[in-house]
Each structure stands twice: as C-alpha cells, then as structure tokens.
Design goal:
The complex is a heterodimer of chains A (215) and B (257). With 215 residues, chain A is an alpha/beta fold. Chain A has 6 helices and 13 strands.
Chain lengths: 215, 257
C-alpha cells in the first residue's frame, strides 16, 4: 500500500488536510506524523501550515523535521500548502523577517495596508475567500481543474519567487501574485485545497496519483 | 475578476439540532445539522457557520461531534461560535475540524483573550462576533453599542470602536450582527455594516435581518460587506444558495458560481 505523510509539527489545522486527503485516498494510507523515519518511508509528503511563519519555523525545528524535509523534497512527490508553501522559500518578511527553509529561491512579502483594486476599491487584508487561480503552465496537478477555477485563500503574505519560471499559477488581488509554484517533484499552493470543495479535492486526488515527474 | 463575495448560511444549533429563533422567542426546528450542511455545500455555500446556542455546557460535546461529522464530508471553511471562552475551547473545535472560531461574550469580558487566541492559533482562525444595537435617536448621528447574552445585556461600548480594537488585538474577521434586525426579515442595518466595514482592514460579515435576496445584494453594495450571512431564508427552503448567488451576480457582484 502506498502512503502519504502529512507532516505534523504542531501548527494549525492539519486534520482538515488529512481528512480531505483521506476522502480521495482511494486505498492509499494517510498518516499524520512528525517521525522522520515514517516521513522518509512515505511515498508522498504534504507540508501543511497555518499561522505565523516564525512559529511554524520554530516548531519545525523543535519537532526535528527540518532535515527530513530537505531530504524528501529532493526525491518524493511533495506538496506544500499555505504557510507550508511560504516555508519553502528563502526568507519571509513576516514577524520582522524570518529565514525559511531555502528550498525554492524567493521571498515572502506582505500585501500591505493600502492595497487597492484597479477600480480604486480598498482591498481587505487578509485576502480571505474564493479567488481565481490562473494556471500559468500545464502540470499533472491541474488535471481536470478548469482554467481560472476558484480556490479558497486566507493569507496576508504571498510568495515572490526569484525565478519567474517557478510560478505554476497566479491570482489577482491588488497585485498579481504567485498562487502555486512547481519545480520537478515539488508543488506548492498558497490556497487551501482542503477547503476548496470539488476543485481542491481534485488537486489532492491528482497529487495522490502523481509520480513527481513533469512534462 | 477577482475575489468573490461570500454567502455564508448560519446554522443555530441547540442540543444537536438546527433551530432558528425569531427574536429569540419562537424556536422552530429546522433539522439535522449534518444533513443541512451537506445540502448547503451542494448548493454552493462559500462557508458554513455553526452557532452553538445550547444553554447547558453539559451538551457542548454534542457540537464537537456535529463539527467532526460535517468536517469529514464537507470541504469548505467551517466556523463555530457560541460558548468559546478558553484556549481549550478553541483547540477542541479546531481539532474537531473547524477552521475558525467565533468569540463574542468572552471578548467583551476579557479582550486579552482575543490577543492570546490570535497569538496562539493565528488571526486567520479568530472571528470576533459583535452584536450591536442602535442607541442613538432618529435626529442624532447613528451610534451603536455592543450587547452580550444574546442581545440582552448592554455594555456601553461603542460598536465601531470595539471592532477597531478587536482587529488591533488580532481578529482576522468581524461577524457583525444587528440585534435590532435579527429575526425581523427587514434587511441588514446598512449604516452599521458600512460604518464597521470602513473602519477595519479585515473582512466583515454582515448578519441579522435577511428576509429576501435583495437584502443580500444591499449588504454588499450599500453596506460594503465582504460576506453576507443568513439563516432562516435558507433553512426553510424559501431560497437556495444558488438562487442567492444568481441574484448577486445579476447585480454585478462577483460570486463563486
């Protein structure tokens, strides 16, 4: 039986990630763990995350999962979600500046307090709710998901990769920001597939079928 | 195109059953929460809010089971409010599958609780619920005060100021209910919604008074709300969520269809 490990480092709502994966698991085993051996033994790995980045990074270190994350991102299908996406970058502006895992090149920036739409409407921060995800390139994780499908977001910071080619999808909210990144066997999304109904479940199902290769 | 305005059906739950009181009197039974949640999800609800109105704390566990069941089959954001007083209450609901918790009375009695909760669980899951009543006379500038205990106890606190303070303390969203309008089906208190929505940088959910679909449109267009919450018009199948979204789309509001 193949397994997918959801990395548990004590932050936020990984239960909903696990529940959504289980819903589409189709015989695959979903485990929630911070045990490096079990993460290493899994076929696929998901890094979830909510809350402040400094706490997330501190908890990853405290739970002893940093090394195994660096290891598995080199070889297994790997999915980062929300702060789990932001944590993959070099550095985040949140909490007065927080060094991240440095797995993908780029920074995490704040939307700002004076964010406005093109028509001048003031935009609230956090960016909360259902927004459109524009797929910038073909990827196995987009299979069966419509162009500009809506996904559920809740975040105040967004990823800015230093290599534009990393962007797998973008979304408009005062700025055009990177909603998904992809490189080889690593995929990561700013939105919450586990809270995005059909489109979100489809993305998780695609991840559970993905062998980590890209066309 | 961009971020959609949200429609959030609210399920008032008493001892594991969905009920809807009209001005807190006539409590009508509207059914099984899990079944109703499933129906709203199928109709395209953007989120669901559960308000635990169970009087006795002995029955609070019932709500945990409801949330667990819903979270296992409905994959949209879930908010749970009512009786959230401690970090342990928050943790229990988040572990059961809630994404956000609504803090109301506890915030009024101990504002620091909001700060602690936001620090510990993140602002994204802390919704501060404000029950406001108009306290100005017709010829004065409108002024609203917050009330606790289901609208029975005045606090002397200005609602707009309170909303600002709660956001400073880390609230990620404000759920704003007009006690004057709740259960009346006469529409939102639009000046209240607008005053609060313009005063804070976080999203505001308008609540209280929805009797028809145009009221939802008004809440967004005139009240500048980011989301609209309604209960009875959906529970008793007067309208579906789909119909509500169609009406909003016709009015030029961006929705998830």
């Amino acid at each position: 039986m193949t397994t997918v490990a959801v990395i548990d480092y004590g932050m936020g709502n990984l239960h909903s990630v696990a529940k959504a994966l289980e819903h589409v698991a189709d015989g695959q085993q979903v485990i929630v763990t911070h045990d490096p051996e079990r993460i290493r033994a899994a076929d696929r790995v998901v890094l979830p995350g909510v809350g402040a980045i400094r706490d997330c990074m501190a908890e990853m270190a405290r739970q002893g999962v940093v090394d195994v994350i660096h290891e598995v991102v080199r070889e297994k299908p790997f999915l980062g979600v929300c702060v789990g996406m932001q944590a993959l970058m070099d550095f985040s502006a949140e909490n007065g500046g927080t060094p991240c895992l440095g797995i993908l090149p780029g920074r995490v920036e704040y939307f700002g307090d004076s964010l406005a739409a093109q028509d001048g409407e003031r935009l609230k921060v956090p960016h909360m709710g259902w927004n459109q995800v524009h797929q910038e390139r073909a990827h196995p994780l987009w299979d069966g998901i419509g162009q500009d499908a809506r996904f559920y977001f809740v975040h105040s910071y967004y990823v800015r990769p230093s290599e534009p080619a990393l962007t797998a999808a973008s979304t408009e909210y005062g700025v055009t920001f990177t909603a998904a990144v992809a490189r080889e066997n690593v995929f990561a999304v700013q939105f919450h597939p586990e809270k995005s109904q059909h489109a979100g479940l489809a993305l998780y199902a695609n991840f559970l079928r993905w062998d980590g290769s890209t066309p | 195109m961009g971020l959609a305005k949200r429609i959030i059906p609210c399920l008032d739950v008493d001892n594991g059953r969905v009920v809807k009181g009209v001005k807190f009197l006539d409590i009508r039974d509207a059914g099984d929460p899990v079944e109703i949640a499933r129906r709203y999800d199928e109709q395209g609800a953007d989120e669901l809010t559960f308000l635990d109105i169970t009087a006795s704390s002995d029955n609070r566990e019932t709500m945990v089971h409801v949330v667990e069941q819903v979270a296992g089959e409905v994959f949209i954001p879930l908010t749970v409010g009512g009786g959230i007083r401690t970090s342990a209450d928050i943790r229990r609901m988040l572990n059961a599958g809630a994404d956000k918790v609504g803090i109301n009375t506890a915030a009024v009695f101990n504002p620091e609780f909001v700060k602690e909760a936001a620090d510990r669980f993140g602002s994204q899951c802390i919704v501060v619920a404000i029950d406001a009543k108009c306290v100005s006379t017709a010829d004065e500038t409108p002024r609203w005060e917050i009330f606790t205990h289901g609208g029975r106890k005045p606090t002397g606190i200005d609602a707009v100021e309170w909303a600002r303070r709660m956001v400073d303390y880390g609230a990620g969203e404000i759920l704003l209910t007009s006690m004057d309008r709740d259960g009346t089906k006469s529409g939102f208190d639009l000046p209240l919604v607008r005053a609060v929505s313009e005063a804070v940088r976080v999203p505001v959910i308008a609540s209280g008074g929805v009797g028809n679909l145009d009221h939802l449109v008004d809440g967004i267009v005139q009240g500048h709300a980011d989301a609209v919450l309604a209960a009875s018009i959906f529970h008793f199948c007067e309208y579906t969520i789909e119909q509500a979204k169609q009406r909003m789309a016709q009015a030029g509001i961006e929705v998830r269809l």
